[in-house]
Amino acid sequence: MSSGKFVILSIAIVFCLLPHSTVYAEGELSIKPGYYKLIKTTKTNFDIVAATSTTEECITDPDLDPESVLPNKENCRIRNLKSTKNNASFDFTCDKTGDKSALKGHANYSTGGNTISYQFKIEGLFRGKALIVESSGTGERIGDCVSEPGLNQ
After folding, report:
1. Does the residue 150 lie in any domain?
2. Distance of CA 79 to the CA centre of its chain
3. pLDDT in tens, 31-48
4. How high is the pLDDT of residue 2?
5. CA 57/CA 67 separation, integer angstroms
């Protein structure tokens, strides 16, 4: 794999892994904590085929600070944060740092009690070419989280 594709894949993976919960803003989105089956798809304008993965994860906290999904809290800012009980959306910009280009993006989350979905779109430059990363996912609650037994049990 070329180093360019590795960097693009790294950016895509970061955004694909972020939304494991829901966004908190002036209240909280309604999602029931539990064990969820998540299907995530990420694509870039550099690749023909989108990457899709399915995982099962325990979501214990229904709140996620929007800043926690940003690639870099020091250089990124959230704008246009809008939230209702079942939807949240925001735009974000990240200033150029070192050899990393400036990024801009949009995120949207929605929930339905036992379901969650999200869409991310980020735009920037990579080696002088426009880079667009789009990530989306859906999740469905499949049960309660099972605590792992401790070492002394």
Report:
1. no
2. 17
3. 788 999 999 999 999 888
4. 47
5. 21
